Amino acid sequence: MIGGFLGAGKTTAIGKLAAHLDALGHKVGLITNDQAGGLVDTRVLRAQGFATEEIAGGCFCCRFNSLVQAAGKLTEASKPDVFIAEPVGSCTDLVATVTYPLRRLYGDNFSIAPLSVLVDPVRARRVLGLEAGGGFSRKVVYIFEKQLEEADFIVISKSDMLDGEAEAELRAALAARFPDAEVFSISARSGAGLEEWFAAIQSREQSVRRSMEVDYDVYADGEALLGWLNATVNTRSSEEFEASDLLRAVAREVQNRLRDQGAEIAHFKMTFSPDDSLSGELASINLVRTDASPEIGMDLDEPTTSGQLIVNLRAEASPDDLATNVSDSLRSLAAAFPGLNATIEHVEHFRPGRPTPTHRDS
Ligand SMILES: Nc1nc2c(ncn2[C@@H]2O[C@H](COP(=O)(O)OP(=O)(O)O)[C@@H](O)[C@H]2O)c(=O)[nH]1
Ligand SMILES: [Mg+2]
After folding, report:
1. Which H/E stretch holds residue 329?
2. Ligand 1 atom with minimal separation from the 44 CA
3. Confidence class of residue 103 from pLDDT cuts 50, 70 and 90?
4. How far is 224 from 227, CA to CA, in rounded Å?
5. How many CB atoms lie within 10 A of CB 77?
6. Which of 61, 67, 126, 240 has its C-alpha lying 20 to 30 A from 34's C-alpha?
7. pTM for this structure?
8. How far, in Å, from the CA of 11 to the mean position of ligand 1?
9. Closest ligand to residue 271's CA
């Protein structure tokens, strides 16, 4: 499992790890997970050519049997020898609720790598008091910190965003606060540090230690503070447009509205799939803080006239506000994209329910 908070860089790093293992001749099966269906991550990983199963409707810990079934399904389809699973970014207590039960029930079938927990360096520096800036309220930070507490490997991601001094300071602060973990630094973008982390994942097994204490009331309150929205939007235009322009415009509109409301974005990501694409190509955009800039990931080669926009938005805000923001933002596109018609085909917006794990081994 490659864990870490929303926006930490898990999906990007999993793509790199899967490609690395693939190049070594391993067959890789990926498992994504979310509270709701219609996951951008699943599309992004499938677009890279990896066999990917999605578990929707709850976290791995609460849907333990679905995790085992997903592994079974991938085994039937392509017999992977390595599974990489991405848990929901607002989830913690994975060792007690997923790893230990997996080992107890299916220990003969799986050997389990150490739990890596990725952290966004800016988010981590703010939580640890090394720099000022917007952030989450206390109970959400509780989840962030519990994720790090149970990590075997704490992996500072996006190290290309830090200078050497800030990185050293963050490493030292993490090592002091979480002495049981080994700290790695990686950049999926530049490739820095990946070899060392991959080698550690491949060569080591998760060690057994006493699982951490978790206050499930605080954990549940923290999760419930995060509004969640997944939407599918059909777009059609009488004039050609660039998918990346559309993604940027929607992202900025939603971001501006959330900023005005003082809401912190955890992860806001969208994909655009053109209707006329035969190859499954798509464009994507990501935003991981209210005060960051939206970044285009993948892009299309040519302008388009219609396609499907998938929106996954997680922020410390009420789900109703998120839904209003998204629909107002889509309506406001008319000025910049004359002839564009954007219709919300499906939307789910909610606060995650109280986590009730299928198993919990202490
Ligand atoms: N600068 C930089 N950005 C990264 C890197 N890895 C991921 N990101 C960006 O971080 C954002 C969130 O990444 P994602 O993999 O979706 O995070 P997840 O929510 O943890 O799965 C995206 O905009 C990525 O492009 C990296 O190594 N460097
Ligand atoms: Mg992800």
Report:
1. helix 319-331
2. 16
3. confident
4. 7
5. 11
6. 126
7. 0.95
8. 7
9. 1
